[in-house]
From TrEMBL:
NCBIfam families per the UniProt record, alphabetical: MIP
Name of the protein in its database record: Aquaporin family protein
Gene Ontology MF terms: glycerol channel activity
Source organism of this protein record: Arthrospiribacter ruber
Gene Ontology terms: cellular component: plasma membrane
């Protein structure tokens, strides 16, 4: 499988599960309505598990521009591949959120609150304070990337030279990593920790014919894009400062 296809498919699966669980919890007349934050964070974590299982052997399962950028900063991933990976991730996120919308379309139609209709697509802060929201995204993403950096080797040992990423952690450990970030640090902004995860679905919210959907809140959209990128850079800087895998 080509790395572009792997990143597209892996990210599509991740977002379909993530957008789907939010729809299940917040939209009216679903079986999971009101089931809460634990259900949301668990499904997002297991969505990462699914994406990593599928994409890991072929692309390293970055599934996140922050992962690609963080690895490129440390020299463990070629900068020339970053645009290809990011494009595939954004397209995959768009496709996955579109699938979730189709699955829950009747429930979108049955829901009156435009904020609830938006929730399965993009993140939004619990308290809108942009500097604080940005800080939350930086810290959450830095934890993600730092753990990945300290858990990877330059090449997956499969003899193919597959680029490293979430897949080199192993699907189950990375699911636990994303789960604990959501539980511990995600309550402020909804923990995008992934520019593609927010941008792709937000674009879909803008263009899909969702009745009574309201605004896509582009004024906030830069936070879940810039925050994860800065978080990746911070994690990479700490990793390099501490000796790229060995404390000095």
């Amino acid at each position: 499988m080509d790395v572009f296809v792997a990143e597209f498919v892996g990210t599509s699966l991740l977002i379909a599960m993530g957008s789907g669980v939010v729809a299940n919890v917040v939209l009216d007349k679903t079986k999971g309505n009101g089931s809460g934050w634990m259900v949301i964070t668990t499904a997002w974590a297991l969505g990462v598990f699914i994406g990593v299982v599928v994409a890991g052997p072929y692309s390293g399962a970055h599934l996140n521009p922050a992962v690609s950028i963080g690895l490129a900063i440390t020299g463990d991933f070629a900068w020339g591949l970053v645009p290809k990976y990011v494009f595939a991730q954004v397209l995959g996120a768009m496709f996955g959120s579109g699938i979730a919308w189709l699955v829950y379309k009747d429930h979108f139609d049955a829901t009156d609150d435009p904020g609830l209709k938006f929730a399965p697509f993009g993140t939004a802060p619990a308290i809108r304070n942009l500097p604080s929201n940005l800080f939350s995204e930086i810290i959450g993403t830095s934890v993600l990337i730092l753990v990945i950096l300290y858990s990877t080797d330059p090449v997956i040992e499969d003899g193919t030279g597959t680029p490293i990423g979430l897949g080199s952690l192993g699907a189950l450990p990375v699911a636990f990593l994303v789960w604990v970030i959501g539980l511990g640090l995600g309550g402020t902004t909804g923990y995008a920790i992934n520019p593609a995860r927010d941008l792709g679905p937000r674009i879909m919210h803008q263009i899909l014919p969702i009745k009574g959907k309201g605004r896509s809140d582009w004024a906030y959209s830069w936070v879940p894009i810039l925050g994860p990128i800065l978080g990746a850079a911070l994690a990479a800087g700490i990793y390099l400062l501490l000796g790229a895998g060995g404390m000095v």
